[in-house]
Amino acid sequence: MTLDDIIRQFKSIPYLFIGSGLSRRYLNTPNWEELMKHLADKVDDKLFSRERRKEEYENRPSSEFYMELAGKLRAIYDEKFDSEDAFLKEEFANHVLKREHSILKQYISLLFRQEEYPQNLAPDLQEELKLLSSLGKRSIAAVITTNYDHLTRILFPDFAEYVGQQDMLFTPLMGIQEVYKIHGSAGKPESIIITKKDYDQFKEKQAYLAAKLMTIFMEHPIVFLGYSLKDPNILSILKSIAYCLTEKQVERIKNHLLFIEYSADKSPTPVVADKELLFHYGTSEKNLKLKSVTLHSFKPLFESLSHKTFCYAPKVLAQLKRDIYQLVSSNAPTARFRLPSESDGNDILINGVTLMPVGSGFSRLESDDIYRCIFDETSTRPPEMIRANIGNIFRDQLPPIYSHCSQLLPLCRYLHLYIEQGYSIDDVHPNLLNYIRELDKSKFMPAKNLLTKLRGLKTWNEVTGAIRLPAATYQGRDLGAIYQINPADINLDDLKAYILQLLREPECQRLYTELRKLIRYYDFLYYKKRLPDLP
User: Fold this and answer.
1) CA torsion angle 268 272 273 278 (round to 10)
2) Three-class SS of residue 333?
3) In this structure, are residues 188 and 162 in contact, taking their beta carbons and an 8 Å threshold?
4) Eight-state DSSP code of residue 185
5) Cβ proximity of 209 and 168 under 8 Å
6) pLDDT band at 346 (very low <50, low <70, confident <90, very high)
7) For a FRET experiment, which of 144, 167, 255, 402 has its CA 20 to 30 Å from that of 161?
């Protein structure tokens, strides 16, 4: 059986289960061992020495060493940050610290916070990354990951993001265009699972998570990318899932589990093999069967996956599921079904069901609309209609869009309009208020690995000279230079004119990550200072 044969037999659209190997491949992020060595060497290079590991952890899994070391480092980082003036002060110079939170986790957050499209990749990796990103349009149901980094945000900007087990357990997941970051996210430092205590708490709730994941495993194929079959985290999750399955169910999902392993051998043909994982539960045991594919280039995999697509636009299907869930769960008697015609740009039209208040006459905004409607010149709705419906937009539409857009939206202008129209801040969803209240320049600073490339660009003229490129050829690091400039030196009219120029480019029909970030920055610079103090 070939790789194409396996994927052709999938009866539904697959989930991706993404591990650190994939981020290492495209973002050059550290693996677990490299991360722990870097964190330890910051305070004492003997903490990660070969001699110490042999003395304390001989014949024990390295994962135990990493977890216990992280617990020690958490206390050391807090103590050194309070007692030593120079410790990590340069690293945190452009970021707001919450001192009540772990310094270690906030530092890890800095290391994994890259949100720019990766630059200077080899041509074959660039091609892989474009193929992988394109899968998000119709060929991937959702993504599960144990990574902290923002690779999934870069690749799938329209996917909703849920962080930690709490989000997965207590949120009505739609299973379409969503990302589940079960070990935390760099965007929420306190969610990061790194110490033994963190992992113990995770395992206490893992049975509930396994039940949630088991439903996914039974209904969708799972493609594991960036993991080793020896990875303790993934084995722990698979063991919990296998425990919940009957022998018949284990047999049923054997062709649902596709484990991709990288090979240094440059053979163009992927090698397919049957694998079994044996798990022990006290005196009993269970075999979990799966397909293993070893390859050097991921291009054949992504090309094969691209042939498996949703029949209808995933965005429409996700909205349909959300609306029906809302109708069933709320039993709202004042709502009616409205049937708009939807297109995803691929000449496939369907009638979706969108829940709208009777007689509202205002269609639901999508995330791209929220960005474009910041400017009257590019608004997807008449500006006067936006103003007239700002109460509905801010109270009813923005909260779910905010939660489904990785909690990143340009909200200051909408709150400004909301207050201008006489609405009370008391009625605003607290998540939106918290986001706007905590918004500052540090939220836009580029990843640390770009800072050296951006130093020296200090004036607005220098930067605009560097970034006046067509949208199709822009470089994330060029746009990133804007955030290094003193806001007082930026002419906001010029910044607006530049963004409008980009928005009118044909290539910007679908907003890319860096352009979204630039719009959010303008929204912050122009409108945040026009807002009253928030409660």
Assistant:
1) 100
2) coil
3) no
4) B
5) yes
6) very low
7) 255
